[in-house]
Amino acid sequence: MNSSKHTELANHAWSVADLLRGDYRQSDYGKVILPFTVLRRLECVLEPSREKVAEIAEQHKDSGIDPDRFLRRASGHSFYNRSSLTLKKIAADPQNAAQNLQVYVGAFSDNARGVLERFEFAQQIKRLDGAGLLYKVIGKFTDLDLHPDVVPNHNMGYIFEELIRRFAEQSNETAGEHFTPREVIQLMVRLLVAPDGDALQLPGAVRTVLDPACGTGGMLSAVDDLIKELNPDATVEVFGQELNPESWAICRSDLMIKGQDPENIAFGNSFSDDGHARKSFDYMLANPPFGVEWKKVKDEVEHEHKALGEAGRFGAGLPRINDGSLLFLQHMISKMKPVDVNGGGGSRLAIVFNGSPLFTGAAGSGESEIRRWILENDWLEGIVALPDQLFYNTGISTYFWILTNRKSPDHKGKVVLLDARDQWQKMRKSLGDKRKALGKEHIAEVVKLYGEALAVAGDAEHPLHGKVKVFANEDFGYQRITVERPLKLRFEVTEETLAALEASKAIQKLPQAPALTDACKSLVGASWGTKQDAWLALKDAVVQAGGTWPTGAPFNKALRDVIGVRDLEGEVQLIKGQPEPDGELRDYENVPLGEDVEEYLAREIHPHVPDAWVDHSKTKIGYEIPFARHFYVYQPPRPLTEIDAELKALEAEIQGLLEDATE
């Protein structure tokens, strides 16, 4: 089935909007169109066995035996409908449409009925009936042919995603609440699974897959399809969790139709209500929302972080509240299978991020500590930069992070960075913010390049050498050092000094404050190079005025703050015999991990500031992955002569146009 057919069927379903206009807001169209599309799909799938199921249901009506097992076997699926009603029959009886539709929906098996309940379908039936639209809407959907022989399961996913995309547009969803284009999923799945191609082709291969933000299940379907493509006899069990009820319902219905267990798709928030606690998986992949805050589950996440530490999911650290992307990654890492003594087991995972998780957060922050935890455990296998404008609801640049706890020997201790930002083709027609697409040749090229990354990075003659870089894990680490410089002061009494003296609470609360103020007035204009000289002069003035000299560290510090003036040629201030650092001159430097800090100080800082030193007690270890910096290529500006010639040509062209206009 080609894309034009998907669009045609989606257009047919969305044409119901013409009926809803006026009675429904645009943002609510999806609340009707999506559940009716699911209902019609379920009906079309069950049509061949409808009469047989209805017959068996009638036979067991008063038997006292639960017929569920017999009805499932008769339908050939994990779900069924006991009623002899159809949407066509219901539409033909407008007066009883609402009652009959309720009966029809109630005749579904519990798992199918639960899907429709997530759409709050009963409320929509009541609302449509009240507006006199119910039988018209049902009639529209009876003309929509969604039989499996016309629309295979894989293609049905495209239709659902197109409808959800339109629903999102009408609802003004934020950039983070987007849907993953199928070609992006194809690339992601191939990067995830490709290294295991040989193992997956072994007889009796069984693999489990998790998507903790599964949406409509597109990624789960893609992994299932690829593994079955490699080995038709392989067993693939897919698991997921989804917060959005409409997407959850579509995903479950899709799994039911494909023969997978719909109970494997949990509903709720993966952070606060983990639907797959204490389970581990062979493969995991996700496209979590970008830049979406996790404030709603803050209490639960922080409690797990503090109470369970490394025994929980979020022991490495917590990112800032406005972006939960790295929480998803920690959640997935916690579900990796352990590697056995023979190197078997383990997991691979892939996740889509924007640029923020690469570098956001200074040394010691939650984000930096999470990156440190991942890199020091040697889990990060590679990062692939994708073209911008690939997603429907956001044009930002995105990256695949690929992690595993069973790296091949040649990848151990290394991270691959692959720049695939130029692997795209322009779409004939934009879809929201999506203006670029990945062609099959682009997907094949990126997968091949990723698989050969180490060889390409080591071959300077390779035509794609500049697109791949390989780093040691430690290369992304740095030491955040604090560079101090001594506080240097000269001392003077000015009119400003007197004002500061009268404003100092620490001094004015002393009984000697009036005498000290009078003494300072007599010294206006005086200046001293050392603290000792200044104190002697001030003390003599106070004594001569009949006062007593205050004592104590708080007084001495307050007085120094008042009459001391920063001066690079001034006296170095000491604390317990050591130079006192000047907070205003304090600076920070990032020193590569493993480099001697004192050597760095002598080489990079002392030539400019000889009296600087490093406060080692404040040094922090940080990790960041400056992807763009590693692939930056300097583009020299155009020669001035070329720019000048272009400007003169433009001036001549404008002059010619003006002359033509005045003739």
TrEMBL record:
Catalyzes what? a 2'-deoxyadenosine in DNA + S-adenosyl-L-methionine = an N(6)-methyl-2'-deoxyadenosine in DNA + S-adenosyl-L-homocysteine + H(+)
Please provide the Gene Ontology terms (biological process) for this protein. DNA restriction-modification system; methylation
Q: Which InterPro entries does its entry note? A: D12N6_MeTrfase_N, DNA_Adenine_Mtase, DNA_methylase_A-5, DNA_methylase_N6_adenine_CS, SAM-dependent_MTases_sf, T1MK-like_N_sf
What EC numbers are recorded for this enzyme?
2.1.1.72
Q: Does the keyword S-adenosyl-L-methionine apply?
A: yes
GO molecular-function term, one example from the UniProt record: endonuclease activity
The record places domain DNA methylase adenine-specific at 154-453
The record's keywords, sorted A to Z, are:
Endonuclease, Hydrolase, Methyltransferase, Nuclease, Restriction system, S-adenosyl-L-methionine, Transferase
- Whether Methyltransferase counts among this entry's keywords is yes
Task: Name the enzyme's class.
Answer: transferase
N6 adenine-specific DNA methyltransferase N-terminal domain residues: 9-141
Spell out the family assignment given in the record's similarity comment. Belongs to the N(4)/N(6)-methyltransferase family.
Q: What is this protein called?
A: site-specific DNA-methyltransferase (adenine-specific)
Source species: Streptomyces caelestis
